[in-house]
C-alpha cells in the first residue's frame, strides 16, 4: 500500500527508527525480523509502549492489551497487517 | 519559559488551589485545568482571577472513564498535556479493627487508584509529545504511618511506591514522576482540630508551625520545572523537619 510515495512498510520502519531512536536505519529492519526476544531487534517493553502509542497516533490502530500487542508487534509484517486492517475498516 | 498545559486534581481544596495558582503565576502562557468533583465553588474563584487561562473540569478521579474524557478534552483544546498533579485525596480515619470496609475502599480509591487511572490516562500523550511531568501528592503519613490512618497511610505509601516504580518505567521517555509528602499544612483538612490538638501537633514540628499551601505548591512547581529535569522517582518532604 502506497501513501505519499512511501510504502506502508517504509513508513512503519521510519516510524520505529524515529520514535525508538534506533541506531540503525529503516533499511536495516527486515520485514520478518522479530522485534523482541533473542536474535531479534532487541526491543523491550518500554519500546513496545512507544510503538503502541505511535501506531495509535499515526494510524489510529488501537492495541488494547498486552496479548494483542504481542501479536501485532511480532515483526514489521504483522504491524503492516494490523494497519491495513484498520485502514480497510 | 514556553507555555505549558497543567492538570491539577482536587483543585477545590486549599492545596489544589495553591498548586494551580503557582502554575498560573509562573507564566502568562500557562493554562491550568482544575479537576474538581463534588464541589467547585473555591476553584471557580481562580477563573475570575486568571480569566481565559484556567478551566474547571468535572473529574471523578476514581473512574477511568472520566479521566479519559478529561484528557481527551484537554488534548482537543491544546494538543498537549505537560504536567499532571495528582492532588485529589480524602481521609476517613479510624482504628483498623472497627473500620468499615467502605472507609478502606474509598480512601484507597481516592488516594491510590486515582493516581493509577490518572497516570494511565496521561501517559500516551506524554509519550507522544516526548516529555511530561507527573507529581503525586502523597503525605507524611506514608512515611510516619500514624495510628488511626491505616487506610490513608497505606494508600499514600502505595502512591510513593507507584511513583518510584513508574519513574523507572518512563525515565527514558523524558517523563519524570515524583512525589511530594506534605506534613501538617494549613488547609481545610486541619479545620476540625481543636486548639489543644493544633498546639500538640505544632509542638511535634521542629519549625513549630504548620506549613502553608504555597510552600507545598513551590515544591510541586520545582519538580515540574526544567531545572528538575534529572530528578525522578524522588520523594520530597515538605514537613518543617518532622521526619
- Proportion of β residues of chain B? 15-25%
If you average the pLDDT of chain B, what whole number results?
Answer: 96
Any idea what the shape of chain B is? globular
* Cα distance spanning the termini of chain B: 34 Å
Helical proportion of chain B, percent range: 40-55%
CATH architecture of chain B: 3-Layer(aba) Sandwich
**Structural class based on helices, strands and sheet pairing of chain B:** alpha/beta
**Which second-level CATH architecture of chain A applies?**
Orthogonal Bundle
Oligomer: heterodimer
Strand segment count of chain A: 2
What is the CATH T-level topology of chain B? Rossmann fold
Helix content of chain A: 40-55%
Mean pLDDT of chain A: 91
Give the percentage of residues in beta strands of chain A: under 5%
Order of helices and strands of chain A: EEHHHH
Give the ordered list of helices and strands of chain B.
Answer: EHEHEHEHEHHEHHE
Describe the largest sheet of chain B.
Answer: 7 strands, parallel
**Main pleated sheet of chain A:** 2 strands, antiparallel
Broad structural category of chain A: mainly alpha
| Broad CATH class of chain A | Mainly Alpha
Q: pLDDT below 50 for ≥5 consecutive residues: which ranges of chain B?
A: none
What attributes does this structure have?
heterodimer, A: 89 residues, mainly alpha, Non-ribosomal Peptide Synthetase Peptidyl Carrier Protein, Chain A, two-stranded antiparallel sheet, 4 helices, 2 strands, B: 243 residues, alpha/beta, Rossmann fold, seven-stranded parallel β-sheet, 7 strands
Amino acid at each position: 500500500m502506497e501513501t505519499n510515495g512511501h510504502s506502508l512498510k517504509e513508513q512503519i520502519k521510519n516510524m520505529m527508527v524515529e520514535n525508538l531512536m534506533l541506531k540503525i536505519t529503516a533499511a536495516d529492519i527486515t520485514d520478518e525480523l522479530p522485534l523482541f526476544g533473542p536474535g531479534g531487534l532487541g526491543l523491550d517493553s518500554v519500546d513496545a509502549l512507544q510503538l503502541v502509542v505511535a501506531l495509535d497516533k499515526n494510524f489510529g490502530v488501537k492495541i488494547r492489551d498486552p496479548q494483542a500487542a504481542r501479536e501485532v508487534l511480532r515483526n514489521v509484517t504483522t504491524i503492516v497487517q494490523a494497519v491495513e486492517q484498520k485502514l480497510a475498516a | 519559559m514556553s507555555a505549558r498545559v497543567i492538570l491539577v486534581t482536587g483543585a477545590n481544596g486549599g492545596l489544589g488551589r495553591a498548586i494551580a495558582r503557582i502554575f498560573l503565576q509562573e507564566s502568562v502562557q500557562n493554562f491550568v485545568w482544575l479537576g474538581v468533583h463534588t464541589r467547585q465553588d473555591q476553584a471557580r474563584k481562580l477563573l475570575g482571577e486568571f480569566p481565559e487561562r484556567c478551566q474547571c473540569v468535572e473529574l471523578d478521579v476514581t473512574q477511568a472513564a472520566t479521566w479519559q474524557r478529561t484528557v481527551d478534552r484537554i488534548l482537543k483544546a491544546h494538543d498537549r498535556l505537560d504536567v499532571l498533579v495528582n492532588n485529589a485525596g480524602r481521609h476517613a480515619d479510624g482504628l483498623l479493627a472497627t473500620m468499615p470496609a467502605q472507609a478502606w475502599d474509598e480512601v484507597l480509591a481516592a488516594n491510590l487508584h486515582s493516581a493509577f487511572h490518572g497516570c494511565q490516562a496521561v501517559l500516551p500523550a506524554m509519550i507522544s509529545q516526548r516529555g511530561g511531568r507527573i507529581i503525586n501528592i502523597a503525605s507524611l503519613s506514608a512515611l510516619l504511618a500514624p495510628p488511626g490512618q491505616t487506610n490513608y497511610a497505606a494508600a499514600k505509601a502505595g502512591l510513593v511506591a507507584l511513583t518510584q516504580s513508574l519513574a523507572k518505567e518512563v525515565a527514558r521517555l523524558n517523563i519524570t514522576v515524583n512525589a511530594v509528602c506534605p506534613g501538617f499544612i494549613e488547609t481545610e483538612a486541619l479545620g476540625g482540630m481543636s486548639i489543644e490538638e493544633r498546639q500538640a501537633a505544632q509542638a511535634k514540628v521542629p519549625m513549630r508551625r504548620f506549613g502553608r499551601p504555597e510552600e507545598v505548591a513551590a515544591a510541586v512547581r520545582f519538580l515540574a520545572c526544567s531545572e528538575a529535569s534529572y530528578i525522578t522517582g524522588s520523594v520530597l518532604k515538605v514537613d518543617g523537619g518532622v521526619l
